[in-house]
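Subgroup meeting minutes
Present: P.N., E.W., G.H.
Scribe: E.W.

1. P.N. recapped why we're keeping a running log of single-chain structure predictions: easier to compare across weeks, and new members can see raw inputs and outputs side by side.
2. G.H. added today's entry (291 aa).
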Amino acid sequence: MWRFIQLSDPHLGNQVHGTGNGRLESSLIPEVVSSLRRDLVDLQPDFLLITGDIARAHSRDAVYAARDLMDSLDTPYYPMGGHSDFRNEQSRQWFVEAFGAHLPDSRMCYSFTHKEIHFCVLDPWWEWQDGSLMPFSDGHDAAPEWRIPPEQYDWLEADLTEHAGEATIIALHPPAILPENEALQESMARYGMLKNTHQFIRFLSAHAQVKLLLSGNVHAHYIARKQGLTQVVTGSLTEYPVEFRDVHVHEDRFEIQTRGLSNAAYASQSQARAAEWARGSERDRYAVIPF
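Output recorded in log:
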């Protein structure tokens, strides 16, 4: 057995106390990261997979501050951009400059294989109000809507065909399988949604080696299944319940566990604690996916 950790939506690099989550998403972030670093020493994951919204503020300095905090974990990691990361036209250049050493080929859409498990990291683009697809949001505060660009479908088809014999995990910031829980649906509408999910699920279902989808964006935990695929959505690291996913890889299965920091005090300081549903039910916190 080996393991990797999925972190999502840490919103690092912010120094301004927000009205939504106060100090936990600003001045307490270095403490949260230090606590996580101590926990990772005990867990010894092979790597971290970050499913988007790594940086909070929309500036080059914030992206580099987020990078420094991630590097301080002393654990290899694979980054992914999200709504907060790709807010404006310069954002992608900042992201590549800061995180390029952790990207296999300096692209936001990439794949890698680790111990016979294949990973595909996707990069949905924003659908602007005029219907065009763009690699950054239009700067409006309305909930974003994403689509998978046609060229990424072409790339993914070729990549999955080449690695047809390897159990595969797909990672993307917005979830592809929608939840049944009404509170989660409201949260998804607030934070943004992937459009044409039916097309995407049909596409993935044609590749039997794809077993697991990992996403974030919703700031809550949930696990959903559809057409042989399991979608694991992970809440924000710096928002209640301040948790992450511990993915155990066995010879014949993935085992998903949900873990909080060993220092549980940070969860109690989250102003979002009233949203107890963000923790998920017991079926949203553990899963076994055979392959």
